[in-house]
Fold this protein.
Amino acid sequence: MQLTKLIWMATALLLAAALTSCNIGKAPEPTQDVNAIFTSAAGTMIAQLNDQQTQTAQAVPPTALASPTPLDTFTPLPTVAGLVGVTPLGTPFTLSTPGGALTPLATAVPAGSGSTGFAVGCNNAVLVAEKIPDGTIIHPAKRFTKTWEFQNTGTCTWDQGYSFDFKSGEQMQGQNVVLTQQSPKTDFTAPGHSQSFNIDMWSPGTAGEYKGYWQMKDDHGNWFGSLVWVDIVVHR
């Protein structure tokens, strides 16, 4: 037992001597600067504070933007009904005639006895009688003769160069009547006298109502007198 204690004591002395020899010749620890310690500590705290703020900003979700306020809905003005003579802009106005053709119609002067006609210079003509009244039913593709009788109510004679011409609508193969030098003198019409014009026509082959306008024309090409028409209904 004593030997064992001696060995332990010797070992302890050797360890103490070794530790003492390790510190021999070592420079003494420098004295630390207090200001440097405070500066370092402050820097560490600032860095930690920045890290904490960054983590906090990342943890908070971004605030959603407010939805835009929708504009007020435009309410159209009410349509005023019952106004006379008001036509929407851009709406075309057309006149149609039977058969599908679009033909502008002349302003008609009422025909028949009592009409004053349409005077141009010394010329005027008034319808006094006609044959084949308006609305007469005729079979398709059938020949017929329309007759108008006019009175010369002007002061000029209807002589060479005057004519009775188709003006608008459905001509139905009718031909103009033109007075020439070869025309019989009986075809010339002095003021106060009457003249009949017989126009041969053909009814169209398709069922429907057809209307054509005719009028007198002077030797200078001017329309005058009553504007007259032929009006038939084609029916099988």
User: Anything to note?
Assistant: DSSP finds two helices and eight strands in the chain. The beta strands are 125-131, 136-138, 143-152, 163-169, 177-178, 194-202, 208-217, 223-234. The radius of gyration is 60 Å. The chain has a mean pLDDT of 72.
